Amino acid sequence: MIDLKTLRESPEAVRSGILKKRNDCDLDAVLKADGERRKLIVEVENLRAEQKAANSDMAQMQKGSQDFLEKVGVMKTLSARIKESDGALKELDATWNDLYLSVPNPPHESVPEGKSEADNVVFKSWGEIPERKPYNIPHYDFDWLEQILDFKRGTKVTGAGFPFFVGDGARLVRSLVSFFLDQANEAGIQEMAVPFFVNAESATATGQLPDKEGQMYQTVEDSLYAIPTAEVPLTNFLRDEILEESDLPIYRCGHSACFRREAGSYGKDVRGLNRVHQFDKVEILKWVKPESSYDELESLRDYAESLLQKLELPYRALLMCGGDMGFSQTKQYDLEVWAVGQQRWLEVSSCSNFESFQSRRARIRYRDPETGKNEFVHTLNGSGLAVPRVFVSILENGLQEDGSVKLPDVLVPYMGKDRIVKV
RNA sequence: GGAGAGAUGUCUGAGUGGUUUAAAGAGCACGCUUGGAAAGCGUGUGUGCAGGUAACUGUACCGCGGGUUCGAAUCCCGCUCUCUCCGCCA
């Protein structure tokens, strides 16, 4: 959620930010509810103060005396009024809270205008796009694909989009996860193993609720949500905590399975491993002081890029335009890797600054020793990296004329071999 | 899953309807004291919201949510979590 003070003092700035994101939230309704709510708060609090003062008087009076009984009568009326006003306030609070949660985080000034993915800016490209040879085909057309990947049985066991990885395929998944975690450790990012289910409060704090409810799997009995990314448990790890300034910045990472319903997706986007309902990902999380968050975003992107460079996969970094970025982000880079067989870019990482949007919802603060006040930290997160599309790129780009797949050098120690061959 | 016990501030812990403005102690911070320190003494020590330029004021918060009452940390109902024992279990 955005800063209330900013919203009250410069609603026009927020309004233009919302416009930049092509969001249709009704800011006037939010402001109106805020004004009404504040008025009502003053009213209720004044009544309460009156009640409290009367209470101390009554404590000293003779119980059952004429004066006492008279006072009880008067206070009964007051009590009823308080009950009424308080009820109205609670109702208004709920309305206001829903409205407040519906305000997106306005983008940073450096975010380009635009309404769709076509307007994203190519910020950087790395590596040479290989020439497509006749034998360069999409991974889903490999004639030996079932040797490493089993969609059919995944569908039988669970449903579409839940493939089994088999043999070298399973090992490649594990190798990538290990490689990503080892790299993070080397970069001084502390590793965590996280819960794969979270409660509604956690999902709200990171912005999945109420915005993206339909994208998450939900348990029937305990109303828990299967995490769409380790970002959710990681960010909430410090929920409701006040940190010392000296604790910051905090860098953490976690590997998890990520579960996404991907409601509404179709077509060639979902062929093969391009889009699945469950996938592995290593997520990097940063809790930082506000003044450094944009520098931290650049270094986060640099770090994610370094993984693709070590894997020798050509990629590009996109600076997302206002209309294509998320609800909670203020600035976002996506990394896309080239898949030569499909002749298309596949998103493998998204690095974002949330400023205080998440920390405000999650109440993650730090004590500023100069002012003595508690300030919200800025949170950032980025994939480092998502496994399946990197897997795809390794398969398609590494495919040799003889049908084998040459693996990136850095993965050889993890795989125990330098190529996957058709058997 | 069953039975029992419990949840109070940074911590320990008192408090079973009204001077509780949550006792007391510890810790922490600052001050006095000291050559310096310890001890001692004194002062301070939470979070949110609202009002105010501000100093500050008001209000809420004793696990969470309801209820009873003129008045609830305290009584009633529901829930969550923790501990002990039993059951089940990688």
Structural commentary:
The strands form five sheets. The protein has an eight-stranded mixed beta sheet with strand order 1-10-11-12-15-9-8-4. Helix 3 runs antiparallel to helix 4. The longest helix is centred in the N-terminal third of the chain and has 36 residues. Strand 11 and strand 12 form a beta hairpin. It has two domains: 76 residues; 304 residues, BirA Bifunctional Protein, domain 2 (2-Layer Sandwich), CATH 3.30.930.10. Helices cover 39% and strands 21% of the residues. It is elongated and about 105 Å long. The chain is an alpha+beta fold. It is built from twelve helices and 17 strands. It binds one RNA strand of 90 nucleotides through helix 3 and helix 4.
Concise structural overview:
The chain is of the alpha+beta class and 423 residues long. The protein has helices at residues 4-9, 11-20, 27-60, 66-101, 151-157, 168-186, 200-205, 231-236, 293-310, 357-362, 387-398, 412-415, and strands at 121-126, 149-150, 164-165, 190-193, 197-198, 225-226, 241-244, 250-259, 278-288, 315-319, 331-339, 344-353, 364-367, 374-376, 378-386, 405-406, 419-420.
